[in-house]
Design a protein that fits this description.
The complex is a heterodimer of chains A (322) and B (278).
Chain A lengths: L1 H18 L3 H24 L8 H19 L3 H25 L4 H21 L1 H4 L24 H23 L2 H11 L1 H6 L4 H27 L4 H4 L2 H14 L6 H20 L6 H16 L3 H17 L1
Helix pairs in contact in A: 1-7, 2-7, 2-10, 2-12, 2-13, 3-4, 3-5, 3-10, 4-10, 8-10, 12-13, 12-15, 13-14
Chain B lengths: L1 H24 L6 H18 L4 H24 L7 H23 L12 E4 L2 E4 H23 L1 H11 L3 H4 L4 H23 L9 H15 L5 H21 L2 H18 L10
Antiparallel strand pairs in B: 1-2
Helix pairs in contact in B: 1-5, 1-8, 1-9, 1-10, 2-3, 2-4, 2-8, 2-9, 3-8, 5-6, 5-8, 6-8, 9-10, 9-11, 10-11
The chains are: A mainly alpha (322), B mainly alpha (278).
Chain lengths: 322, 278
């Protein structure tokens, strides 16, 4: 029964842009889907206690490499995006391998990755002759307007479908990880590394796998964001505040459930949009004010996030009724 | 070189309070730099808008930021003391968002400064900024005072004991809640002191915390947590890297080298620079 409901919901999501064509809500939906994918990529590793503050860096690499190869090499994003993803994965492996090898965990890992996103942000700003620095950067428009080769579309519907597919792919990966041996290995590691190693888990390799997977997905999210928005700046796709924003949305939505990051993205983006429309320029800062208070309250009172807590409630209700 | 040395003084001063909290309570105040930012705003309003004498303004600032530290501990950290370290880090991340945007809402995004320029000293053909010299001196004095407090007083001994063993000391009759409160207040006050000296040389705006916040944590970690000598030394190493890198390339490259240096050092010496290998 629930299976059919999922298929029905999926079909409704696919059919939506053909029925309802208003551009602004569609734009918000695309943004929500892209960020949901990014947040899902973070939670793929974040749920195992590997709190990375470097994902802003991976996303920045994804976005900037794609844009730079297009503008300077006139290479299609179809090649540029894999390049960006590989670059980001390589960066993740370069930093994460020694981290895991020398057993840097907990908030030390968070701080090392924080330094990583700091590096990416500063490199983008420092190479301002090529990347536009903190003023931002625009991939060149393709002359004909829409083009599959340049991965640029005027039509919001196309973008909606692309984002939907990628988001669904992200959820699929999340669920695959959820059902894999990797998950059990990583849960054992997050409980006790020595015990896991003694039980035959290759601690470094397993952690490295999940980190590279997560970085790969995040870079793809950055590249998509760049292709859709056609404007990127270090503040919106890279750096420490983006990393914190990811962590925040995932914690609010629910870190241990597959739809948690998506719900987190819906809440945070809608909140920002509502405040922006409702209060205009006076609202500058208010969205983050609310986020900050919510984040603190959630971590103190609802560490499992909205979806996680709701699921718990449902489970408890079923338990008492049966 | 000299400029780097003086920047080191500023960074050392910044990392002092964080180092205390980090070392004793074992909590990373990600929002530490935002406390400093609020202190800088406090100085700006007291001195420029209400025309308070600068020493009085500084004193008020130090006390106020100290109280903020106490509030931060009781409202956010205390309920989370038993939680996973990463949750504490994230909760203070929420406070970071909150303080940053509260400053944006209340004070606007314009850059503000005291409108007070201290003279630049010329020593043997080199230009040395007076305000940096002041920060350097204050960092030294504050460090010595904190060191004396920790080693020469009863409370200080209790603080060090708590830092060494969180489970046993409450059994020995140390009131750990009181000690944590004292430490948080002291950490906040040191943030306030840093704010008073920073506002002399930098403009204040709501996002000023992001420019020196990350580097402050890295200094604390690199200098071994709770080890003030180590933190001091690490601050100078970082400052030299930033200013020498900034001299030959851009300032941003200086930061890149400093961050990269941190990552490499974490692999080579995870316990920090100053730890003796046992």
């Amino acid at each position: 029964m629930t299976r059919y409901l999922w298929w029905l919901a999926g079909a409704a999501l696919v059919a939506l842009p053909f029925v309802y064509r208003s551009p602004y809500p569609l734009h918000i939906l695309v943004i929500i889907l892209i960020w949901s994918f990014a947040y899902t990529s973070w939670s793929v590793m974040g749920r195992f206690g590997l709190v990375s503050l470097g994902h802003g860096g991976f996303m920045g690499v994804g976005a900037y490499v794609t844009a730079l190869t297009w503008n300077y090499g006139h290479i299609s994003p179809w090649i540029g995006m894999p390049l960006a993803v590989v670059a980001s994965a390589a960066l993740a492996a370069l930093v994460a391998y020694p981290c895991f090898r020398f057993r840097i965990t907990g908030h030390y890992f968070a701080l090392v990755t924080l330094a990583l996103s700091g590096i990416v942000l500063q490199v983008i700003t420092a190479t301002r002759d090529y990347t536009g620095g903190s003023l931002g950067y625009t991939p060149e428009r393709y002359q004909g307007g829409s083009s599959l080769w340049a991965l640029q579309f005027h039509d919001k519907t196309t973008w909606y479908l692309i984002a939907l597919a990628v988001w669904a792919g992200g959820l699929y990966v999340w669920n695959r990880v959820d059902r894999s041996m990797l998950r059990y290995a990583l849960e054992a590691i997050s409980e006790d590394e020595d015990a896991a190693a003694a039980a035959g888990v290759h601690v470094t390799a397993e952690k490295l796998k999940i980190t590279v997977l997560s970085a790969t997905m995040t870079a793809l999210a950055g590249a998509l964001y760049c292709q859709y928005q056609m404007f990127i700046s270090p503040d919106t796709v890279s750096g420490i505040s983006v990393s914190l924003q990811m962590v925040f949305a995932v914690v609010v939505g629910g870190i241990y459930v597959s739809l948690g990051p998506t719900i987190g993205a819906v809440i945070t983006i809608l909140l920002a949009e509502v405040l922006r429309i409702g209060f205009g320029t006076r609202a500058v800062g208010w969205d983050n004010l609310v986020y900050g208070v919510l984040l603190v309250l959630f971590i103190i009172f609802l560490p499992k996030g909205i979806v996680g807590s709701l699921l718990d409630l449902g489970r408890r209700a079923r338990w008492t009724s049966s | 070189m000299i400029n780097g040395l003086l920047l080191g003084g500023v960074l050392a001063l910044l990392s002092l309070g964080l180092n205390l909290v980090f070392g004793v309570i074992d909590v990373v105040w990600i929002c530490y730099a935002e406390l400093v930012m609020l202190g800088m705003y406090g100085m700006y309003f007291l001195y420029t808008v209400y025309h308070a004498p600068i020493v009085l303004a500084a004193a008020v600032c130090i006390v106020c930021v100290g109280i903020l530290g106490l509030l931060l501990h009781t409202l956010v950290i205390a309920p989370l003391l038993g939680a996973a370290p990463i949750n504490q880090l994230l909760a203070t991340g929420g406070v970071l968002f909150f303080l940053q945007s509260a400053a944006t809402v209340l004070f606007g995004v314009e850059f503000k400064n005291l409108g007070l320029r201290l003279p630049v000293l010329k020593v043997a053909g080199m230009f040395v900024s007076y305000s940096r010299l002041l920060a350097f001196g204050a960092a030294l004095i504050a460090m010595v005072l904190v060191y004396l407090l920790l080693t020469r007083t009863y409370t200080g001994t209790a603080i060090r004991a708590i830092a060494q063993d969180r489970q046993i000391m409450p059994l020995m009759g140390v009131n750990s809640r009181r000690i944590y409160l004292i430490t948080s207040g002291l950490g906040g006050a040191l943030a306030g002191l840093a704010a008073c000296l920073l506002v002399l040389q930098y403009d204040v705006h709501p996002f000023v915390g992001l420019t020196f916040g990350p580097i402050t944590f890295l200094i604390c970690v690199l200098g071994s947590l709770g080890n003030f000598g180590g933190g001091f030394f690490a601050a100078f190493v970082f400052a030299e890297i930033i200013s020498v890198g900034g001299l030959y390339l851009d300032l941003e490259w200086g930061y890149v080298f400093a961050f990269a240096f941190f990552i490499v050092m974490m692999f080579v010496r995870p316990e920090g620079l100053m730890v003796r290998r046992s």
